[in-house]
Amino acid sequence: MHFLCKGMIRYWCSQLAVIMFSLCVFAEANAQTVSGSISAGVEGHYGFVFAHRPSMQPLQHSHLGAVVFTLSHQTNGSKQWHSLYHYPEIGLKYGFYGLGNKEQLGYGHAVYPYIDIPLGKSFNHPLHFQFGWGLGYITKPYTRLENYKNVAIGSHLNAVIAFNFHTEIRLTERDIVAPAIGLTHFSNGSTAMPNLGINLTTVQLHYRHSFGTKKEVVTPSLSDFKKHLRIATFGSWAFKQVYPLAGKTWYAYSLSANVLKQYSAKSAVGLGADFIYDPSISFRMKKEKMAINSSSDIRLGMAASYEVIVSDFSVILQMGLYAKSAWKQDGIYYNRLGMRYVFAKNIFATINLKTHLARADFIEWGIGYYFKR
Question: What's the sign of the alpha-carbon dihedral 22, 27, 28, 34?
């Protein structure tokens, strides 16, 4: 069962990677009409907490429901990236989630921005992919005395990642319903233990109504693109806890350099090197009565990267391999799912979730510089 659950998580991660890649291979959109300047909507979700570990199964008491409110804007081609991504919808969501176990898990709240991208040549294509990342709040996290059965989440405040696949059915010029299937993930990135995370697998029904003046979609003239190298470096800081529960908070630091070949206006691939200093490694080695030395807390890695670029914002997927790591129980592979935003000339802020396959290591907060962009 344990291997099956891990396999399911890897399956969903692989599907996310495939969809991100597919966003970069479809043709551009034709001229159309935007039904309104702004849209408001509501979603109903019904599903269950996915027990990705055997220890999660006792927390599955019943099916869950959720209600999500949305406020969004349909892009119309006023910026070049709109047409590159087939005129996506961008917006903000607030969700209230029942977690199927009010005694140990309580309820969840989430606020996050999202982007909704048609997987075809226009925003009227029937198949869409929607992705969002923001903040969540769990009302009943683990506590050592009152709620020790909650082995999933050790903090009220968490990160939320949500994505879904949906089709859209137009009822009128301004009204749309969209059946969907999706996954919502709550995790604190090991900032507080436990941190197995809560995964909500749901079927969904979305309703959206557009307001405001209709606008013609602009088809911008695309500038000539030349393939080139993008060189990026960044430094980051993180904090984390490790077992035993309610233990010390450790601070980790990373220095990374990446060379990426940008082969289109939307995508880049490349290789990078990581230097990671994590003093929790010595602590864990001492607990296991393992010999340590001055370099035990240092990890060196090489990583392959794929970057999806949306103007000054980008999403990063990395798969890495440790060249040096004294702590072997995490395995030899590591991953990053991150976001970058260029806020000044060649300077970007980044936030990354570093994991060992399906197990979170820490959340990185960093700043970086593009030597060539």
Answer: negative
The alpha carbon of 41 is separated from its chain's Cα centroid by a whole number of angstroms, namely: 22
Domain 2-216 class? mainly beta
- Which among 168, 73, 75, 173 has a CA at the least distance from the CA of 127? 168
- Using DSSP, state whether 184 is helix, strand or coil: strand
Phi, psi angle pair for 2, to nearest 5°: -60, -45
Tell me the pTM. Answer: 0.83
- Which CATH architecture fits 228-372? Beta Barrel (2.40)
Sign of CA dihedral 41, 188, 335, 9: negative
Q: Which residue has the tokens 């013609």?
A: 216
pLDDT tens sequence across 295-330: 999 999 999 999 999 989 999 999 999 999 999 999
- What digits encode the pLDDT tens for the residues 254-303? 999 999 999 998 999 999 999 999 999 999 999 888 999 989 999 999 99
Note whether 2-216 and 228-372 share their fold: yes
CB 269 within 8 A of CB 307: yes
